[in-house]
Write a structure and sequence with these properties.
- Chains A, B: One of its GO terms (molecular function) is pyridoxal phosphate binding.
- Chains A, B: One of its GO terms (biological process) is carboxylic acid metabolic process.
- Chains A, B: InterPro entries: Asp_decarboxylase_pyridox (IPR022517), PyrdxlP-dep_de-COase (IPR002129), PyrdxlP-dep_Trfase (IPR015424), PyrdxlP-dep_Trfase_major (IPR015421), PyrdxlP-dep_Trfase_small (IPR015422).
- Chains A, B: Its cofactor is pyridoxal 5'-phosphate.
- Two copies of one chain form a homodimer.
- Chain A is α/β, with parallel strands linked by helices and 547 residues long.
- Chain A folds into three domains: 64 residues, no CATH class; 263 residues, Type I PLP-dependent aspartate aminotransferase-like (Major domain) (Aspartate Aminotransferase, domain 2); 134 residues, Alpha-Beta Complex (Aspartate Aminotransferase, domain 1).
- Chain A contains 19 helices and eleven strands.
- In chain A, helix 7 runs parallel beside helix 15, helix 17 crosses helix 18 and helix 17 packs antiparallel against helix 19.
- The radius of gyration of chain A is 26 Å and the shape is globular.
- At the A-B interface, helix 1, helix 2, helix 3, helix 4 and helix 5 of A face helix 1, helix 2, helix 3, helix 4 and helix 5 of B.
Chain lengths: 547, 547
């Protein structure tokens, strides 16, 4: 056989191998795979390097824009991944990682994910998903019932009627929020008379038809950033996402909301939707949903609740009432990759009215044909994996009572942490937890004392220095890799409109103990005394002593 | 200890267990996990029931809308999943499953997916993804270079400059297409003078500013259905997605395109974008991209190429030229879960100009802050998993040459299948493969013969009967579960505007042999003679004998 033909044949054989021959158990990848099966916590602890490399250093391993010409051995590639990717990733499951909305996952999620990936179903159509289609519809019904508690007859009627949908499964809360506002927009601008609807004629003709200058969405200024994207994408415009003042507990101010509704209506702009937040991303507060529902009813607009974070609070008999009024929402967003403990990439939007999603319905000739059971006719996304299976698994294996425990514990742990912050002389609690999120900052007792009596100018200057310190402590703590809190900026009433930087803590990981919480505070005190931060501390003490 | 406290404690302990104790290797779930590791093909073959249950039957296992109160044992749940979900799912990896765009996956994708899921990174921000962030940027650069072949200096300049992005990673091609048109719309309606841009002021004010009646997107009628969604979502309106006639090879008719451009401009509507298709979903054809690029340049609009399917043809030295002109596109969509052989849920959009995505840039206080490296500032989605890792793995392990082999083989296999269809007296090839997709139908030799000479009325009636037969054969073949082709409707020139139903075949699975292809045809012949289909055959023969 000539050389080139021989090598072509060898290439072909190698190619078939990667599709047909599993990794050997004693190969590098096989061993890692086994290690993760045996003990994922141990694997993550062993392989993720705690100490942070600079991102510029890490980038050096990922700076070749050329696709390799020749194949690489799986074992060599796995070594690379182990050293350069896994080692330099973030231990999001660590019980001391309390800065963002990730947590440890239940163990069964890993092998079940493998089944899901091995099956590689595509939920856009029944022909590539079969049983996954009714399963996803069941999951949507379960979450719908958690929110709306309709009758058995209601669910019996709608659960598998493919002309309608109780909601849409999506890759995350952003797509869920966009889908909710998309459906609301299309319902408001639905076909009537000669007007063929915004879906067909577009935004400009819709405004001409309605005789108005634009649409507006009203939400508290604590809203998630996805709503700005939604307003942009849907042609509403970010300026028509009206951000309403909040009270000192970060909940929308109803008087201000009414006032804003009047203001935009005077400008010829039509309120498309009010959005209530059930668990603000930064502070975990819940808007007065009942009052918002009343107002939405009064002015005749859509009422959406962004419960991406807080939705699962409904599992708790004790705390469910915090979300009172959510059952009156026209649509609700819930993220599964947050407090349903499903791996990244799963969210849902539920609609009270099973016909609501008809306003965004679409079809094609080769799939999602009229009358088919294909889920793709009512989703923003097209091809999608069978992630609903993992929600189904969580709901089944953990059960309502299991989730209730997780929720109750999170809220109680957050309250305990708030007490610890308050009991410590050198910390200032900025927002107390309503759900399981709180914010605070390092602020030495003497400075706190001085702040209470200082003039406006000094308060401003002190807060600016404290901001610098908060940023520096947060960064050093993150880089050290033992524990992690995030940071954000808030405008608490006590500082009269001044925006300050705070630590933000999310307590959803059931493995986070009180000892770990104590060590988070301890570490922050240590960083405050570290040579890189302590000059700020000295400055602060000087400034307040002078005042 | 009182009874209730005791049981609460037991519940809590169980809850910790699911977060800390792995499934035992000899548990039901442990055994399935091992079986998939050892031999995924065997697992799928063994557990997926070939014979199709009716969807109504399957629905019975998924019709309880109540979230279970009490936890379920993992082993019981796994049994349920095995019997009711896995057994009733679709064997999308089977070499005889040639009806949709799924294929067998390379083995290494499974253990690597487990690493990805165990790490549970969130790519929206560096704080929850660290090394995954530069890795995703590298993957985007690699695909950008595959399309645009810019210089080393270019990539060195842009690859890790977080103020810009060479593209966006998404959950699939639909989001990719929407992102492309979103960026194009915002660029066309960017801030100027007193106008603060469509992003801020919205669609209505943007049209007033531009002094036009709407925006239009022009694409061939063979476009993917996601573009209708994009037009709806972005406020353009489905009627302003102008569907242009195609030639007999399903490629956009340039004269018709020019004519449509004039027509909409006369109506005061501004062309926002031309869209070229590189691999139409139903027939795998490629638009004349070079000529479209010329026209887009001439009228000064965006040029997007939807290469969700065909993009990886660029790996092939032999067939790359089929996509000539793609390098002049302003944006290009490529799906990774199609011909990059990555599990479901991964797509990309690449932009020629690294500044293009600035038109949709957004920030928040607690993440994606100005100046941060967070990828979330330039994506439609928010929280996202680290799927880019699997693309990185594919590109590294398979290499450019490996993908070239896969592409070349697919195209050549499609040509071979087209020959087989043509050689068989009782089949009619409807669209020949340009890439690796073709369409055909069962059509007995005598009927084909008669069709060639029949009058228009008879042709119409014969085609209607053939449609019924095609639908029935496709359905029976799917239900029998041995092999699978999909179906769609096309309007081939030879039947002068009559829409007919055809079998659609996608040849991307490297394990699909010529024997399997032969058996697909054989099975279709058998179904044609089956008592449920053969009466149609008799009718056909009568009708054509009479004519």
């Amino acid at each position: 056989m000539p050389r080139s033909k021989e090598s072509a044949r060898a290439n072909l054989e190698n190619l078939y191998r990667i599709f047909t021959v599993p990794e050997a158990p004693d190969s590098t990848l096989g061993r890692i795979d086994q290690a993760i099966s045996d003990n994922v916590t141990g694997f993550l602890q062993k392989h993720i390097v705690a100490l942070e490399n600079s991102i510029t250093d890490i980038e050096k391993s990922f700076d070749d824009p050329k696709i390799p010409e020749e194949p690489t051995f799986v074992s060599d590639y796995t070594e690379f991944i182990k050293e350069k990717l896994v080692a330099q990733s973030v231990h999001t499951a660590a019980p001391g990682f309390i800065g963002h909305m990730t947590s440890a996952l239940p163990y069964f999620m890993l092998p079940l994910s493998r089944i899901m990936i091995a099956l590689n179903q595509n939920l856009v159509k029944v022909e590539t998903s079969k049983a996954f289609t009714p399963m996803e519809r069941q999951v949507l019904a379960m979450l719908h019932r958690l929110i709306y508690s309709e009758s058995d007859a209601f669910y019996h009627r709608w659960i598998h009627d493919s002309r309608y949908a109780l909601g849409a499964f999506c890759s995350g809360g952003t797509i869920a929020n966009i889908t909710a506002l998309w459906a609301a927009r299309n319902q408001l601008c639905s076909p009537s008379g000669n007007f063929r609807g915004i879906t067909n004629e577009g935004f400009f003709r819709a405004m001409q038809h309605l005789g108005c200058q634009g649409l507006a969405v009203l939400v508290s200024r604590r809203r998630h950033y996805s709503l700005g994207k939604a307003a942009d994408l849907l042609g509403i415009g970010r300026e028509n996402l009206v951000l309403v003042e909040t009270d000192d507990r970060n909940r929308i101010n109803m008087a201000a909301l009414r006032e804003q509704c009047r203001r935009i209506q005077d400008k010829g702009i039509r309120p498309l939707s009010l959005i209530g937040i059930a668990g603000t991303t930064e502070t975990g507060n819940v808007d007065p949903l009942e009052e918002m529902a009343d107002l939405a009813e009064e002015i005749g607009c859509h009422f959406h609740v962004d419960a991406a974070w807080g939705g699962p609070t409904l599992f708790s008999e004790k705390y469910r009432s915090l979300l009172k009024g959510i059952e009156r929402a026209d649509s609700v967003t819930i993220d599964a990759h947050k407090q349903l403990y499903v791996p990244m990439g799963a969210g849902m939007v539920l609609f009270k009215d099973p016909a609501a999603l008809s306003s965004i319905e679409h079809h094609a000739a080769y799939i999602i044909r009229h009358g088919s059971k294909d889920l793709g006719s009512h989703t923003l996304e097209g091809s999608r994996p069978g992630k609903a299976m993992l929600v189904h698994a969580g709901l089944s294996i953990i059960g309502r009572k299991g989730y209730e425990l997780l929720i109750d514990q999170g809220i109680e742990r957050a309250r305990r942490f708030a007490e610890m912050v308050q009991e410590h002389p050198d910390f200032e609690l900025v927002t107390a937890p309503e759900l399981n999120i709180l914010t605070y900052r390092y602020n030495p007792a003497s400075v706190q004392e001085a702040l209470a009596h200082a003039d406006a100018e000094t308060v401003r200057e002190v807060n600016e220095l404290l901001d610098k310190m908060t940023k520096r402590i947060q960064k050093r703590q993150r880089e050290a890799g033992k524990t992690f809190v995030s940071r954000t900026s808030l405008t608490p009433e006590r500082y009269r409109g001044q925006t300050i930087i705070v630590f933000r803590v999310v307590l959803a990981n059931p493995l986070t103990t009180e000892d770990i919480l104590a060590s988070v505070l301890e570490e922050q005190c240590e960083w405050a005394r570290h040579p890189e931060v302590s000059p700020l501390l000295d400055q602060l003490q000087e400034m307040t002593a002078a005042a």
